[in-house]
Design brief:
- With 410 residues, the chain is mainly α.
- Helices cover 39% and strands 3% of the residues.
- The protein has one domain.
- A two-stranded antiparallel sheet has the order 1-2.
- The protein is globular.
- The N terminus is likely disordered.
Length: 410
Amino acid sequence: MNEEKIPQTVSLAHSHLTETPPGHSSDPGVVRRRSFLKGLGIVGATLLPAGALLLSKGKAQETTSGGRLSKGDADLLRFAAWVELVESDLWTQYAELGGATKPNDGGPNTGNPAYKLALQNLDGDMPQYIADNTDDEISHHRFLNNYLQSKGASPVDLSKYAIVPPSRVSGVPQTGRLTNLRQLTVDTTWWTRLRSDNQNPDLGGSFENAVPDLAKGQHPAIPQTDAEAALNADGSIPNHLQAIASTAGFHFAFIEQGGSSLYPALAQKVTNLEVLRVLLSIGPSEAMHFQTWHDKAGNAPNITDGDLTFPNLNAGIDPNTGLTTFNGNPAADAFQTNLIMPEPTIFLDPKLGPVSILRPTSTAQGGAVASVVSFVEDGLFINPATNKNTGIVDVLMRLAEDADEARRQL
């Protein structure tokens, strides 16, 4: 697929993202690849199955006989594997500049000292946490591909799409990447979503951003040059570099909250109990990552850099409206930085009463295609040389649609 431009905002509420292609599920909440690409104006000639493009072994092998996987279970695991591969790519970039150890080999990592200092304004242990999160995502991807191959199923290989230039900061390997961390549009509605006691996205709830400016425009989360990654002459951290590090802090949580929801959504479709065990065992580690980053993001200094302001979330003011109330409650209940545990809210049926849960976990709101859409809206796949999306999106949509079509076989 040729590179195609991705609009700044692609809302799941848009009708063109919820139309149902012929022969597919009629679930109105499920976003389809064909309608998504059509809505972007880029649906084209290649609407082949994902396996035709990047999988080395035929799906005919993926049967339930001889201990092999059903097609649906293999599709679910492949989708999880690509998510982890993309996460491994972006976390490696964060670790190269801000991690305590080098990605893959675990040896000491000097990274970029100025960027590390800015990250440590969020927490003194940020370099170690970044290194550990990176190792975890790499292990997830490798395990899932190894497991697929052990069952005679095709693994995921996206190496042909690693064309995004890396940071040019000294010490960063100059190899192509799958993801772009320089033009992010970061959704921070997860902040208010987990603090609501009467709204759930699975039941139609909507939420406001904790950092409204991050959800507008395009923002860097890693420095691009040595000049951008340098301290002031007096040794202080420039506001621009701090803004880059703080953007990273909120982006860490955005990425990991997606994984927290994805695994329980995929698990609802699994047939094989061992595959269920795999998904239920990896999923909680993603939630542990998210909890860590949720806590650290709240420490971002209240600064302004150009058109990006990190508000004082402990001021008791809704940063979106300037009001002291939010949905009829004190604004502090929705934005206060130490409220990092999921507030009990409605689930399944409001008549059952509130319960503390992850959300979303429905297959409609937290499904595979919805996950791809969130990554696209984040700006992860923009090629900075063209300001257009790389061809990876169409392939990921195919993998996602296969995963969303999976059904549990009883």
